[in-house]
Amino acid sequence: MPRMSIQTFTCSDTFTLESGKRIENLRIAYHTYGSLNERKDNVVWVCHALTGNSDVFEWWPGLFGSTDFFNPKDYFIICANSIGSPYGTTYPLSINPATGQPYYLAFPSFSIRDVAAAHRLLAAHLGIEKIALAIGGSLGGQQVLEWAIMDSSRIDRLVLVATNAIHSPWGIAFNESQRLAISADRTFYANKPNGGAKGLKAARSMALLSYRGYDTYGATQLETSNEKTDGFRASSYQNYQGEKLVKRFNAYSYWFLSKAMDGHNIGRGRADIRDVLRQIKAKTLVIGINSDLLFPITEQKFLTNHIPDAVYAEINSFYGHDGFLIETERITEEISRFLSHNKATQNQLAYQQVS
């Protein structure tokens, strides 16, 4: 039986954020699947998106699973819950050691770079010196990109799906609109675990519009009757999805994670973004979704053009940004092709060196 368990690691040292603020006793929740092989070259590290969690078999089936491409028979798969996310890692409803009460809005702001630094901390704790492949989509892709820059010698291969080097004004505008909805709910400032719940529901409704698109809604939520004047399918869908998120998430986590996404910029404190991308040593596959409104393919092509020898694959999808979670068959094909080509190239180089 493959090992599928949620575990936690608590950092004994103070965790210093990019801002200089600190988190005491940082707790990181993570899932592992499979085991490390004798060569220690089968580690696959996954980073989740905005409202995801560390159980990648739950939210990326078809790509990760007991019978999927990334399976626990062949790989040692690790996925850690992000700082700020409410699935076991320190987050805004955790107890603030300084007050003995939950942080709520006093939680220290963090960046994508901080999240990547926490992944590095966990990898060191697990004794993982080499990562065969690191993969993430959306905000998860931002994390693995940062990690590949911060720790270029640890990651051999990189798969970036529907992500970018710097979050766009368009993406920031979407996030700010969602936060305006959250802050319009006066309970957000009440310091209660369910504070801002109505605002979060509205925020999720807004987010869905950026995750899908006009054609998707036209096909999946189209009315079959010409007589309806209220109670539309699209309205019910928005309400249902908003309520569904409220049941499993919280407004404070959403607030801070969306802020972290807004601040994603690999050039900050370093150099020109193009020059920073050129520093990446990992063999890289970049995957774009042609109907993605939130992370358009121009952003993935930019990554490909400036990461040395990066390979670009474009997926034709009906589902917009959500295609990175849905089009797993096509993503599997592209990753398989990428790894096969990479292995063939390595074998050829090894043959030339021996000759």
Automatic annotation (TrEMBL):
Location relative to the cell: Cytoplasm
One matching Pfam family: Abhydrolase_1
GO biological process, one term: homoserine metabolic process
Residues annotated as domain AB hydrolase-1: 43-316
Coarse class of the protein's main subcellular location: cytoplasm
GO cellular component term of the entry, any: cytoplasm
Residues involved in substrate binding: R204, D322
Enzyme active site: S138 (nucleophile), D292, H321
SUPFAM superfamilies: alpha/beta-Hydrolases (SSF53474)
GO molecular function: homoserine O-acetyltransferase activity
Pathway in which this enzyme or protein is active: Amino-acid biosynthesis; L-methionine biosynthesis via de novo pathway; O-acetyl-L-homoserine from L-homoserine: step 1/1
EC number: 2.3.1.31
Keywords: Acyltransferase, Amino-acid biosynthesis, Cytoplasm, Methionine biosynthesis, Transferase
Catalyzed reaction equations: L-homoserine + acetyl-CoA = O-acetyl-L-homoserine + CoA
Record Gene3D superfamilies: alpha/beta hydrolase
UniProt subunit comment: Homodimer.
Family, per entry: Belongs to the AB hydrolase superfamily. MetX family.
Known role: Transfers an acetyl group from acetyl-CoA to L-homoserine, forming acetyl-L-homoserine.
Name under which the protein is recorded: Homoserine O-acetyltransferase
